């Protein structure tokens, strides 16, 4: 069902390139109200990298993440995750494609209120029909600082704790790429720091690849590099970012693009 | 405060459609039957016709009213429960519990009044048609004219209003004051209904086999018992779920989801239990009655046939009404779950797995509801059969029970799976973004 890229196959080992997008476009609406959210994006991220995506509101960051993660289908272009090209258009097919390759962390956590912390964490494994290693789940939850909250429900946790559950849930399937859309957008600065450290650790310690959308230059400074997006196009790139450098770039980006498109 | 309620009704008419529908149908049924009282009360109606009309208005109108009351109340409870997030938001933005209570109850009153007003026209047509059936079957003189008067109007409006406002009041009190000695009053009511039902069922033995109103006592009894059992159903469901372990991702998720949603599904269980109990009990009793009449050979067979048709029409109206209410509350409950389904999908569930989970949940609910409804129905059928005939359990009971259970299962599964399927058409990311 899924074609395998030339860089190697999923079975024989991870590809050196974790994510590749080729001329990806996405348009919403039709007629007069047509919006080009992504306008021919081509990019490549290597394995074990931590990339922040920044840009004005409406520049297409969320759309980019969703197309890359298989939560949405681009209108045209190619998405390759860990050497496997995303094909097929049905939701079930995309879901199966995502399961072993992609983890996603949302600004609004998107945990299930009816399940406990542990149950939320192992849910992706259950759904994928994979063996549920409860000890491993507990280890991961302990690592994100929730070892004493295993039986709690999301509504008994703070925002920062919920986001850490979401990260544990994204880590448990051992995906190649973790996408995070404004994961610290609803958190205070201390909880945000904890979440960012966890994402950094996933990259440094566990060799995962993380792509994170953020509006916060400080959050972006945790990444190895920053991609800037404006009007659905790539508008620059910053290596080893500092908060100040990012803020500076964003300000100039704002010059070219009228705010609130 | 009524202004606030009116405004909130106007802003979200779609949300209240389910409540409006139940108020409308409930009022229509009550008015239809109670207009027979008005018709009988007109000057110049002969005493035989008047008695026939009054008896059937009292018997059917009586338990129909009880039924409508609980059906409207359970739909409203489902509606308020679902809005707990919205109410929480209101509370956080400074509304006092008293204000929220007034808004929700006011909303229920507005919707109930609108439903009752809309019901007047259809109830007149329905009552007219019902009188026609009575006249065709020779039970009522052809000279009697139909009348829609104060009895129909007042009872229809009052009962709908009390059911809607009462249910809204109780539900919102629970929503705004969580976990405060809840369950006490419910348990008390449940046992009260069970005792009243048991008494009513036992009263059957005080009647003689040929009393015209013989069917009333066991029918009331079965409905009261089903209400009592339905109120205790969440507890039974809890016990069942504690021991239930299903394999497969959908089964696993369904059991865990249901454990946390027992309170939410209590309204649906109520409709399910009522439907099973009422349909099984009344249809079986009617068929026992028809057989007994046929066996006695007292009446001409044409008359007997007509009477049977008449009674089946009446029972059918009630059964269809409860069935519509079941669909209504199930639909309302499932449409609100789009966000939850979205989160399941984002966690890696395929649409098939989401539907599978909904299917398992519904199957468990149906099993519990049908079981309790059958117990209540049996409690009404057995005394009736013992008084009316020599037997205990009529031969046609298993067939009717099977048919009713199949309809219940088909309707609940069909509605929840169909509604869930529609909810799945919204992309997962968009589904979780819409505020419940
Ligand atoms: N489902 C949709 N239907 C129609 N238009 C959409 C939809 N989703 C996004 N858009 C449009 O596409 C463009 C890009 O949206 P996107 O959500 O990707 O922006 P963003 O960069 O994530 O913004 P923000 O920083 O505010 O989250 C916007 O103009 C938006 O209005
Ligand atoms: Mg966004």
Task: Describe the model.
- The complex is a heterodimer of chains A (261) and B (436).
- Chain A contains 8 helices and 10 strands.
- Chain A has 261 residues and is of the alpha/beta class.
- Chain A has a domain of 172 residues: Rossmann fold (3-Layer(aba) Sandwich), CATH 3.40.50.300.
- In chain A, the strands form 2 sheets. In chain A, strands 6-7-8-3-9-10 form a 6-stranded mixed beta sheet, sandwiched between helices. Chain A has a 4-stranded antiparallel beta sheet with strand order 2-1-4-5, with helices on one face.
- In chain A, a hairpin with a 2-residue loop joins strand 9 and strand 10.
- Chain A is globular and about 50 Å long.
- The N terminus and C terminus of chain A are likely disordered.
- By secondary structure, chain B is an all-alpha fold.
- Chain B folds into 2 domains: 180 residues, no CATH class; 254 residues, no CATH class.
- Helix content of chain B is 81%, strand content 0%.
- Chain B is built from 15 helices and no strands.
- Chain B starts with a helix and ends with a helix.
- Chains A and B meet through helix 2 and helix 3 of A and helix 9, helix 12, helix 13 and helix 15 of B.
- Bound molecules: adenosine-5'-triphosphate (ATP) and magnesium ion (MG).
- The site of magnesium ion has 3 residues of chain A, from helix 1.
**Secondary-structure class of chain B:** mainly alpha
Strand content bin of chain B: under 5%
The average pLDDT value of chain B, as a whole number, equals 85
Query: What structural class do helix, strand and pairing data of chain A support?
Result: alpha/beta
* Highest-level CATH class of the domain at 15-110 and 176-251 in chain A: Alpha Beta
Question: How many distinct folded domains of chain B?
Answer: 2
Describe the largest sheet of chain B.
none
How many separate helices of chain B?
15
- Coarse morphology of chain B: globular
Mean pLDDT of chain A: 89
């Amino acid at each position: 069902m899924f074609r395998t890229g030339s860089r190697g196959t999923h079975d024989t080992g991870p590809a050196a390139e974790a994510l590749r997008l080729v001329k990806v476009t996405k348009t919403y609406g039709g007629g007069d109200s047509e919006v080009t959210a992504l306008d021919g994006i081509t990019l490549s991220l290597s394995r074990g990298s931590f990339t922040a995506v920044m840009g004005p509101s409406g520049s297409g960051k969320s759309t980019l993440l969703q197309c890359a993660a298989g939560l949405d289908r681009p209108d045209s272009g190619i998405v390759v995750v860990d050497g496997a090209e995303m094909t097929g258009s049905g939701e079930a097919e995309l879901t199966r494609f995502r399961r072993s390759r992609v983890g996603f962390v949302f600004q609004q956590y998107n945990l299930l209120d009816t399940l406990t912390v542990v149950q939320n964490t192992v849910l992706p494994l259950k759904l994928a029909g994979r063996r549920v290693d409860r000890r491993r789940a507990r280890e991961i939850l302990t690592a994100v600082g929730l070892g004493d909250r295993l039986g709690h429900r999301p509504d008994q946790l703070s925002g920062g704790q919920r986001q850490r559950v979401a990260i544990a849930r994204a880590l448990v399937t051992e995906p190649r790429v973790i996408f995070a859309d404004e994961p610290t957008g609803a958190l205070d600065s201390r909880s945000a720091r904890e979440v960012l450290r966890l994402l950094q650790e996933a990259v440094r310690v566990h060799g995962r690849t993380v792509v994170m959308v953020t509006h916060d230059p400080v959050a972006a400074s945790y990444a190895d590099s920053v991609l800037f997006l404006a009007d659905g196009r790539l508008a620059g790139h910053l290596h080893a970012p500092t908060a100040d450098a990012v803020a500076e770039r964003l300000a100039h980006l704002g010059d070219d693009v009228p705010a609130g498109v | 405060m009524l202004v606030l309620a009116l405004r909130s009704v106007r802003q979200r008419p779609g949300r209240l459609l389910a409540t409006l529908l139940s108020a409308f149908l409930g009022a229509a049924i009550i008015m239809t039957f109670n207009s027979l009282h008005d018709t009988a009360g007109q000057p110049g109606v002969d005493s035989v016709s008047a008695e026939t009309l009054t008896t059937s208005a009292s018997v059917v109108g009586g338990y129909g009213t009880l039924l409508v009351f609980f059906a409207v109340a359970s739909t409203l409870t489902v509606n308020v429960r679902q809005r707990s997030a919205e109410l929480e938001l209101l509370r956080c933005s400074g509304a006092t519990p008293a204000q929220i209570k007034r808004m929700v109850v006011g909303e229920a009153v507005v919707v109930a009044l609108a439903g009752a007003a809309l019901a007047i026209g259809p109830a007149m047509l329905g009552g007219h048609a019902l009188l026609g059936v009575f006249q065709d079957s020779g039970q009522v003189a052809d000279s009697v004219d139909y009348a829609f008067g104060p009895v129909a109007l007042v009872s229809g409006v009052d009962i709908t209003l009390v059911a809607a406002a009462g249910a809204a009041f109780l539900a919102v009190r629970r929503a705004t004051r969580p976990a405060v000695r809840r369950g006490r009053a419910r348990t008390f009511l449940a046992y009260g209904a069970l005792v009243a039902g048991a008494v009513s069922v036992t009263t059957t033995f005080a009647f003689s086999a040929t009393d015209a109103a013989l069917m009333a006592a066991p029918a009331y009894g079965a409905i009261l018992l089903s209400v009592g059992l339905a109120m205790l159903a969440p507890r039974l469901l809890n016990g069942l779920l504690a021991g239930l372990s299903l394999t497969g991702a959908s089964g696993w998720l369904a059991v865990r989801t249901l454990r946390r949603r027992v309170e939410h599904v209590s309204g649906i269980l109520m409709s399910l239990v009522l439907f099973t109990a009422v349909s099984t009990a009344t249809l079986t009793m009617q068929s026992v009655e028809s057989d007994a009449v046929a066996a006695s050979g007292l009446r001409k067979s044409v008359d007997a046939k007509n009477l049977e048709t008449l009674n089946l029409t009446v029972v059918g109206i009630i059964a269809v009404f409860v069935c519509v209410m079941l669909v209504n509350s199930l639909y309302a409950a499932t449409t609100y779950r789009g966000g939850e389904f979205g989160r399941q999908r984002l966690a890696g569930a395929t649409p098939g797995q989401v539907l599978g989970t909904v299917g398992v949940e519904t199957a468990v609910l149906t099993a519990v509801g049908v079981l309790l409804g059958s117990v209540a129905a049996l409690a009404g059928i057995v005394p009736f059969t013992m008084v009316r005939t020599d037997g205990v359990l009529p031969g046609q009971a298993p067939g009717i029970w099977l048919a009713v259970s199949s309809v219940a299962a088909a309707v609940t599964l069909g509605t929840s799976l169909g509604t869930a399927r529609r909810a799945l058409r919204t992309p997962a990311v968009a589904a979780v973004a819409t505020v419940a």
